Amino acid sequence: MFSDVLYFVLNILFSLFGIALIIRAWAYAIRLHPFNPFSQAVLRATNWAVTPIRAVIKPSNRVDYPSLVACWLTALIYLWLTWVLLTGQIPASESIVRSLVAALITMAKWAFNVVLWVTLIQAVLSWVNPMAPIMPLLHTLTAPLLNPIRRVLPDLGGLDLSPLVLLVLAQVAIMVLQRFAFSLFGV
């Protein structure tokens, strides 16, 4: 029972931190204003991990490589700690390469979960409280993903189905990644 509780806490902490790093990279890619209070919270929570990496790896024009590398390292440490917790053994050298790939899959699952939740929160708030203070931030985050879908979908007047399509696509991506991880790594 103690190991189940420890695994639960480990999963929550590492997932939240990995998601914060993904949001940081996403905010960088869409040029979200760094003085936004939500941006400030994410930057402050993740600076300790990203700053040392930024000294070695520089971000490009649109991709925040230091945040992505920090996220990948977070996923890798999470997987190794989970392995140790569940098996009681340090990962063997032959499983190191698998865990490097599994960390990328874990990152992708975190990213699609962020897309799913941000889109869902925006959709619900657009019905309940479209003037909520967080709506401009959610719109800025989701617009690059929803606009291409809106261009493809037929115009239904006041009914926007693009969030529903994005939710379905994100959920399908999570399911595919989960199946891929399970078939390759047994995770």
General description of the model:
It contains six helices and no strands. The chain is mainly α and 187 residues long. The model has no long low-confidence stretch (mean pLDDT 89). The chain is globular and about 60 Å long. The chain has one domain. Helix 2 (37-54) crosses helix 3 (65-87). The longest helix is centred in the middle third of the chain and has 35 residues, at 94-128. The chain has helices at 2-29, 37-54, 65-87, 94-128, 135-152, 162-185.
List keywords for this structure.
mainly alpha; 187 residues; globular; single chain
Short summary of the structure?
78% of the residues lie in helices and 0% in strands.
- By oligomeric state, this entry counts as single chain
Tell me what portion of residues adopts beta-strand conformation: under 5%
> Which series of helices and strands comes N to C?
HHHHHH
The shape, in one word, is globular
Estimate the helix proportion, in percent. Answer: over 70%
The first-to-last residue Cα distance is: 20 Å
